[in-house]
């Protein structure tokens, strides 16, 4: 078991290092993106245009040698543009299914909040059940299957906020942020002649990712840590600043991502620090706050920080 964890940790470290050849200065975001994949979950990135959201998705797909499709969401899209359509074949006198771009191992849903809620809902079934139903026939998604969606800040014009049911399907929500001055210089130098993603080579393949996903499930989680996770999620349901707290899906997400983070750190057991580190990216987007003044994310993060301060950490000495 120990040797398996070591080899899995080494592979994950190589994948992260490979992505860093393209995405400069965003190690925490890269780690969270990899955690989402090996946790069999989906990732939502919210940030301004041009900070590297799409490049992160492409680098991840290339590093693990998985099939990659990009969907550019627009207000005039239809659900069939995502799921695919049945087309009548005059030679065979039968309808044939032509899969949409959602049928891929890594799917980049670019600017997802530019599409209408009806189109956004076309992602619910494949994200939750790993299948898509067209004309009453169900088609399975490939393995592994991971949706990496990007969205512009809601203050931008012409955007449709993601409904709560859609947000809850995302395992993690992160932000990249702007690079520092020194990092921006490195980006310019690396792209002077050719974009580094064109020279990126795979580190793993789909079978390796499936193996990592199974390794994550075997990471030990003590009963006290499980109680800690449940206590944090329970606290979101009674916090004075939160209208509606996280559902059991939030507990499951925090449980699984904590296991994945332990693997990334090279451990075969989860620590309370893993839970604390992931509480915000796992839970913040699942909370419904009464505020509608555009400060929703900041308020959610502040509420989670307050909860982490108050919920006792297993094994901690009171007053220290």
Question: How is this structure best described in words?
Answer:
The protein has about 325 residues and is of the alpha/beta class. It is built from 13 helices and nine strands. Helix 2 crosses helix 11 and helix 9 packs across helix 11. The model has no long low-confidence stretch (mean pLDDT about 90).
Structural class: alpha/beta
**Estimated share of beta-strand residues:** 5-15%
Shape: globular
Could you state the oligomeric state of the chains shown? single chain
Record field, number of beta strands: 9
Q: What is the CATH T-level topology of the largest domain?
A: Rossmann fold
Biggest sheet strand order reads 2-5-8-1-9
Question: Would you identify the CATH architecture of the largest domain?
Answer: 3-Layer(aba) Sandwich
Q: How many distinct domains? A: 2
Q: Extract low-pLDDT stretches.
A: none
CATH H-tier superfamily of the largest domain: P-loop containing nucleotide triphosphate hydrolases
Q: Helix and strand succession? A: HHEHEHEEEHHEEEHEHHHHHH
Biggest sheet statistics: 5 strands, parallel
Features:
single chain, 320 residues, alpha/beta, Rossmann fold, Helicase, Ruva Protein, domain 3, 2 domains, two-stranded antiparallel ribbon, 13 helices
Summarize the structure.
Helix content is 44%, strand content 13%. It is of the alpha/beta class and 320 residues long.
Topology of helices and strands:
Blueprint: H1 2-20, H2 27-38, E1 43-46, H3 53-63, E2 68-72, H4 80-83, E3 84-89, E4 94-99, E5 106-110, H5 117-120, H6 124-129, E6 131-134, E7 137-140, E8 146-151, H7 164-167, E9 172-174, H8 181-190, H9 206-217, H10 223-236, H11 248-264, H12 272-283, H13 296-310
Parallel strand pairs: 1-8, 1-9, 2-5, 5-8
Antiparallel strand pairs: 3-4, 6-7
Helix pairs in contact: 1-2, 2-11, 9-11, 10-11, 10-12, 11-12, 12-13
């Amino acid at each position: 078991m120990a040797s398996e964890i070591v080899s899995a940790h080494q592979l994950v470290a190589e994948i992260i290092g490979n992505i860093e050849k393209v995405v400069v200065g965003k190690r925490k975001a890269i780690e969270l993106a990899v955690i989402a994949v090996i946790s069999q979950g989906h990732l939502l990135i919210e940030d301004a245009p041009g900070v590297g959201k799409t490049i992160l998705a492409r680098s991840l797909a290339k590093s693990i040698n998985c099939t990659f499709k990009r969907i550019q969401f627009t207000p005039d899209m239809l659900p069939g543009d995502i799921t695919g359509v049945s087309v009548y074949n005059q030679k065979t006198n039968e309808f044939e299914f032509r899969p949409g771009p959602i049928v891929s191992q890594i799917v980049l849903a670019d600017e997802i909040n530019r599409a209408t809620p009806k189109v956004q809902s076309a992602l619910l079934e494949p994200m939750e059940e790993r299948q898509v139903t067209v004309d009453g026939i169900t088609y399975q998604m490939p393995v592994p299957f991971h949706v990496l969606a990007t969205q512009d800040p809601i203050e931008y014009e012409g955007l449709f906020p993601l409904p709560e049911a859609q947000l809850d399907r995302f395992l993690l929500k992160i932000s990249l942020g702007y690079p520092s001055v020194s990092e921006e210089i490195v980006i310019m130098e690396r792209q002077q002649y050719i974009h580094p993603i064109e020279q990126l080579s795979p580190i793993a393949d789909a079978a390796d990712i499936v193996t990592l996903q199974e390794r994550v499930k075997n990471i030990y989680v003590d009963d006290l840590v499980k109680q800690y996770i449940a206590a944090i999620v329970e606290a979101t349901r009674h916090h004075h600043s939160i209208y509606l707290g996280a559902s059991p899906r939030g507990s499951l997400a925090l449980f699984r991502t904590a296991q994945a983070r332990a693997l990334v750190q090279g451990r075969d057991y989860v620590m309370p620090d893993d839970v604390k580190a992931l509480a915000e990216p796992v839970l913040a987007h699942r909370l419904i706050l009464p505020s509608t003044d555009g400060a929703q994310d900041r308020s959610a993060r502040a509420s989670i920080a307050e909860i982490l301060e108050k919920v006792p950490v297993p094994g901690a000495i009171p007053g220290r």
